[in-house]
Structure formats: structure tokens, C-alpha cells
Amino acid sequence: MIINKSEKEVVNIKNLVLVLNKKVILSWVGGNLSKSAFICVLSILSCVYSFSSGRFDGTLSISSLENKTQSADIGRILTEDLIDAFISDGRVKVETDMEGDYLLRGVIDSYEREPKSYTPDGEVEEYRLSVNVQFSLKKKDEEKNEWDKVVNESFIYSSEVDELDAVDSVAVKVKNSLLRLMLEEW
Is 54 helix (H, G, I), strand (E, B) or coil? Predict the structure, then answer.
């Protein structure tokens, strides 16, 4: 049996939850916890367990994001970073040949880089990079979208950091938001 890194993490989390549940139950039976504390701890543990064990059924193809901004390369860069972020995350299998069970499309509506803070000398100290993308998820060979969602993410970075590195970071945040949206549907 081959287990990839994300499956190992899920197994480890499940084992941790089981051990913690057992310890909490033993403590509660011993009279060390009140009923309300016991219920509270179990609720928290079940949330961690259910959030960590979500998964997207099927494979995903990601089309090139359409760029409606003035930033020339942002569509290509964000598409590549988004695909790389999904592949490295491992919870969703990405098909790069557009033959996935689902097709993810996106339109970048806005891309803004604006000063966030200044030094005492009036120089820009930090920037905020904000990206707004409208996504649609469609099952292969179906006309109707499974869902349409808007993801708006931003990243604050030092003026000493290259803007392309900030784009990489905001792409990871967009991927995390997309995963959350996709996994809550299933």
C-alpha cells in the first residue's frame, strides 16, 4: 500500500484525535472534568478531525486564468503558481492535460499593489498585494457549473521582497481558499 504525505498526515491526525479522545474520556470517567468541559473538548477535537479529513473526489484541470487587469504577466504567473500550489498540496489530483474530471476556470478582475506602511523618512516599508479572482468549477462534459465563487486574497510584504515572490505567496492563499470552497461542497 502506497501512502502519500497528505494521507500520512491525515492518519497521524486521526491517531492523535483517537489518543486524545481516549485520554479525555479516561479523565472524565475519573471525575477530573465536568460534563460541559468534556463536551467542549470533544467538539473541538471533532472539528479538527473533520476539517483535516476532507477531500475532493475526482481530478482537476486548471485552465489559464483570464487576465482583465493592466498587469501583463499576472494571468500566466498566477496560473502557474496556482497549479504548482495545488500539486504540492496533494489533496487534489491535478491533470495538466485538461482531461480532469472537473475544470476550474478563473478570471482575474483586479490586481493591485499599494503601499501599506512607510518608514519615518517617507519611503515605502511594506506593500499590500491584492488579487480578486472569479472562479467557476464545472464537471467535465456538463454545461452547468458546479459552483461560481469569488476569491479575494491579499498579502503584505516588505519593500525589500521581490513582487514575484509576493505573487507566489498570494497564489498559495488563493489555493487555500479554493480548497476550502471545494472541500466544503463535498
Answer: coil
Identify residue 138 by its one-letter amino acid code: K
Give ∠ CA 85-58-139 in degrees, rounded to 5. 100
Together in a domain, 137 and 94: yes
Show the beta-strand stretches assigned E in 21-180.
59-62, 66-67, 93-94, 102-118, 124-139, 145-158
Do both 86 and 167 map to the same domain? yes
Task: Return the pLDDT at 8.
Answer: 46
Q: How confident is the model at residue 148 (pLDDT cuts 50, 70, 90)?
A: very high
Q: Please name which of 99, 97, 81 lies closest in space to residue 89, comparing C-alpha atoms.
A: 81
Express each pLDDT in 75-116 by its tens digit. Answer: 898 899 889 888 888 888 999 888 999 999 999 999 999 999
**Domain identity same for 14 and 37:** yes
If asked whether residues 83 and 115 sit together in one domain, one would say yes
Locate 60 and state its grid cell.
482537476
The C-alpha atoms of residue 134 and residue 146 are separated, in whole angstroms, by 14
CA angle 104, 109, 111 (to 5 degrees): 110
Report the percentage of the chain scoring pLDDT > 90: 45
Question: CA 45 to CA 20: how far, in whole Å?
Answer: 8
Residue 60 CA to residue 37 CA, distance in Å, equals 42
